[in-house]
Amino acid sequence: MTKVLKIHPVTPAQAQAMQAAAKAVKPNTFPVPDHFTAAVLTTSGAIYPGVSYRSDTRTLTMHGEATALAHAAIHGESDIIAITGPNCHICKQLIWESAIRSGIDIQVAMDDGQLVPISKQMPYPWPDVEGRKFAKHEKPLN
Ligand SMILES: [Zn+2]
């Protein structure tokens, strides 16, 4: 039986509160203010914002979504039910991996009020919903 990710309801008020939380930390993006921010909503009802944290290498730059997920983790929360969006594809991957670990189909709260589950944004996800990283004909490298 294929694993099914569970959607948790998100109210319009919660989605608006997430957008407000993400907006409130705009001055704190590093090192330049007013860059990318995000916020996550957890099963406890808590909202954790995140800010982009840029590296001169660019490769090491942390996106607001990544730091919002880490912010929740710092508080011992990994059951994310929603995150603000839209998101770049690097962040979609991180959101997807959080979803398959928790079993929760994280809803992306767009700035127009739409809620779009991450599963709908990942038509050919890797790893798959079961966490498999290899096709049936491939073998792991160890
Ligand atoms: Zn991103």
Regarding CATH, which class?
Alpha Beta
Strand share of the residues?
15-25%
CATH topology: Cytidine Deaminase, domain 2
Number of domains: 1
Describe this structure in words.
The protein has 142 residues and is of the alpha+beta class. 27% of the residues lie in helices and 15% in strands. The chain contains 3 helices and 5 strands, in the order αββαβαββ. It has a 5-stranded mixed beta sheet, with helices on both faces. It is globular. The site of zinc ion (ZN) has 6 residues, from helix 3. The site of zinc ion has 6 residues, from helix 3.
Topology, pairings included?
Elements: H1 12-24, E1 37-42, E2 47-51, H2 64-74, E3 80-84, H3 89-102, E4 107-109, E5 115-117
Parallel strand pairs: 3-4
Antiparallel strand pairs: 1-2, 1-3, 4-5
The structure holds zinc ion.
Question: What are the key terms here?
Answer:
142 residues, alpha+beta, Cytidine Deaminase, domain 2, five-stranded mixed β-sheet
Q: How would you summarize what this structure contains?
A:
With 142 residues, the protein is of the alpha+beta class. It contains three helices and five strands, in the order αββαβαββ. It has one domain: Cytidine Deaminase, domain 2 (3-Layer(aba) Sandwich).
